[in-house]
Amino acid sequence: MTPEFSFEMLGITKKFPNVLALDNVDFKVKVGEIRALLGENGAGKTTLMKVLCGLYRPDSGKILVRGKEARIRSPKDAIGLGIGMVHQRFALVESMSVLENVVLGTKMDALFPLRRARADVEELAEKFGLKVDLDAKAWQIPASEQQKVEILKAMYRGAKILVLDEPTSMIAPSEYETLFKSLIELSRSGTAIVFITHKLKEAMSICDTITIMRRGKVVANCDPKEVSAKELAEMMIGRDLQTEAPQKSVAAGGQAVLEVEDLFVENDRGMMAVKGVSLSLRRGEILGVAGVSGNGQTELMEAIAGMRRPKGGRVTMDGKELSKLPPWKIRELGLAYVPESKRVAISPGLSVSENAILKSYSKSLSRGFLMMKESVSEYARQLVEKFNVVAPSLEMPAKFLSGGNAQKIVLGRELMSDPKVIVAGNPTSGLDVSSTELGHGLFLQARAKGVGILLISEDVDEILKLSDRIAVMLGGKITKVFDRTPPLDELSLAMTFEQ
Amino acid sequence: MKVRLERRGATSARLVALSRLFAVVLALPITSVVFLACGTNPAKAIAEIFGNAFGSWFGICETIVKSIPLILCGVGLTVAYKAGIISIGAEGQLLFGAIASTWVAIYSGLAPPLVLPLMFLLGGTAGAAYAVLPGILRAKFGLNEIIVTLMLNYVAQNFLVYLVTGPWKGKGEWGFPQTDKFPDYACLGTIPGTRIPYVTLALALLSVAILHFQLFVTKLGYEMRVLGDNPEAARFAGMRITYLVAVSMAISGFLSGIAGVGEVAGMHQRLKRGISPGYGFTAIIPAWLSNLNPIFVLPASLLMGGLFVGGDAIQISLKLPFGIVNVFNGTILLLLASGEFLARYKLVVEA
To answer: What is the DSSP string of A445-499?
Structure first.
């Protein structure tokens, strides 16, 4: 008899220093089911799944896999039981080929180990719609393909249970469909899939059941056909959602504060990624830059912030040329920068408060060459309070913060630095509903104060919601500028085809 | 009963201290194997080493003498490591400090009262310059500082040998490869009844206090710690990376240079081969033993200094090679590295 449940986690409790991360959680997933695990940052979703995958050991509770009690002490045990996880940060060996990455660490023939593996991997890829160039090096392929490789890796190891941590956070909306198709294909073959997310739409579109977690507890299991997005959101955050549309700027006719003229920028591989971009950002305006990822947005942003030397063209702020200045000078002139990769902006070994002051330590928090201890902790306390950062202690190393909370620090510190211009890349990716709401509110506040905001985001909804004007970036160029909010379809079209 | 490893959530300070202590204590039985192989009773040899180093007033004074250069180099290295620069060039910087101060002592022709202060100033500066070079090469051109600093040690050693066998060879030294003895006004006074030069002792203690303060209370120290922890974050925050690397290396090199001045002006009173039995290399151990905290460089250096003294003693009393001290040092360093692992994982015994 085949068991009904692919796996059952019963009464799982996990304590971290100062926090109860999982509080007596029951979580059961059926064979061939796609399950959404929905919750805010720090709700315990990822922790629960890390317990399943042997990365954390629970303090109490048990796990049954296909009806039998399982002892999962390490990722190796988990793999042996057919449990595979695709993490938010991919774990590929960049200099190796896709095929090598897939078979890495599995049993191989002693001679010509890749020959037999190739046929198997090709078959798997074909079956689940995960086709990738097996001979390309891992660093050469875009994030969406890397994700396919990660899924292939898990399947090649015989995964019967596949856990995906925020699978859509790394790829463009246009690539969701391919991913979802593969996942449905996988579930048909009997794989149980857990889809960790905090995006309601996704959870509702492909999942069979939605489990909602809040503060380490499962608060509800529901059928996506029977609940509305608003109900889900309210269960997630535990209160009513504010759904007022933001006020659009009226002062969008202000003076230009940031000018980009005919900018050319190369990417890491020495190819021209930004090919002659010109933009003008006005005071008190949010200029959204929409585009599918990998069309030069990252390079454009980095060049403006001084993190990457442009090959041609100029960037000026208030008439001062930035393109030749070092990053610290650009920061000092009042350009705030929220990088796409938040890892860049957090110092994991230093404390939460030392991270909180990273952008302001040299101004108000030091006197001469000394750091003012009192003002530092006061500043950190304010930031944590204002931006709702969940941290058990300000002296705790930042590496123990959840991804979303780290991000709140990154965002909060820029907004608190009183900038003239903010350049933000995917500022709310990885944030939960209430923090996104908070983040958006703060951008609008900053705009009202006359700050010019260049918002580069892959989240089309975010762009539409906040922007006064929208520029579309495609193939390294600005292909279209909408002076008022266009309908979604028109924007999507512009993002994929040059008209 | 089964034993397995489990990852720890957070690593407590007490645990780090314990793992450091373990490294030192565990090195004793391991080194004992070497003593046995040499046909000596390990207990006797260890008693001899520590008895000589810490068991008498004379021993303690000698230990302090050997600890001074270790403290200076060790504290300097702590700063460099904290800023994420893995320098192993303290030895070369020490030698350059010694060379520069020798020039001041013998060849500058300055008025006697100016000579000692200038020896320290120029010696420190020479060490700093010799350290800034690999720092800049790394920050600007991405050259690996481990390799560059290591190689520069040999350049300094060979340059020193060239000087003392060639242009600076002393006339009154019966053909030994060394310079003439420094004039009295270029030699350091000692605490009466001991060989401890009080000036360098004071400088060593002062450097511990100042750098502890510098790393944990000043803006510069904060910037260095961010740089060492995540260079990307430092760049993102708009810190001046090249400047920070240069300053960290300058501090490290300056202190190593001062250690070199102390050796020529305080101990040997001339420049020659072998003014340092590898202080710059050995100082790497106290830097790591201290968990990159200047205060703890002090006891760690005393321990290593004691090993130097004890190692000298067993050469005579037990006819053992001095190399055994290096075995001991090496063992500690290896155990330190493994101790890092235990600080991150815990052993769980289950029935």
So the answer is: HHHHTT-EEEEEES-HHHHHHH-SEEEEEETTEEEEEESSPPPHHHHHHHHHS--
Our CA-based measurement puts residue B139 at a distance from the nearest CA of chain A, in whole angstroms, of 14
A-side interface with B, Cβ within 8 Å?
A: 16-17, 57, 73, 307, 326-332, 337, 339, 343-350, 354, 358-359, 361-362, 366, 369-371, 373, 396-397, 400
Cα(B343)–Cα(B11) distance, integer angstroms = 6
* B279-308 residues touching A, CB cutoff 8 A: none
Nearest to A91 by CA among A81, A77, A110, A105: A105
Give the whole-angstrom CA distance, residue A254 versus residue A438: 26
- Reported as a single tens digit per residue, the pLDDT across B279-322 is 999 999 999 888 899 999 999 999 999 988 988 888 888 888 87
Tell me which residue in B4, B219, B240 faces A370 most closely, judged by beta carbons. Answer: B219
H-type alpha helices, A175-262: 176-188, 200-206, 229-237
Residue pairs between chains A and B whose CB atoms are closer than 8 Å:
73
CB A21 within 8 A of CB A47: yes
Q: How far apart are CA A117 and CA B40, in angstroms?
A: 58
Residue with tokens 């905290």: B293
Q: Considering the domain boundaries, does residue B122 fall inside one? A: yes
pLDDT in tens, A87-139: 877 788 888 888 888 888 777 777 777 778 888 888 888 888 888 888 888 88
Q: What domains does chain A contain, in order, with CATH numbers?
A: 5-237 (3.40.50.300), 256-344+417-496 (3.40.50.300), 347-400 (no CATH)
Give me the count of residues in chain A: 499
Candidates B342, B349, B313, B327; CA nearest to B28 is: B327
Total number of domains constituting chain B: 1
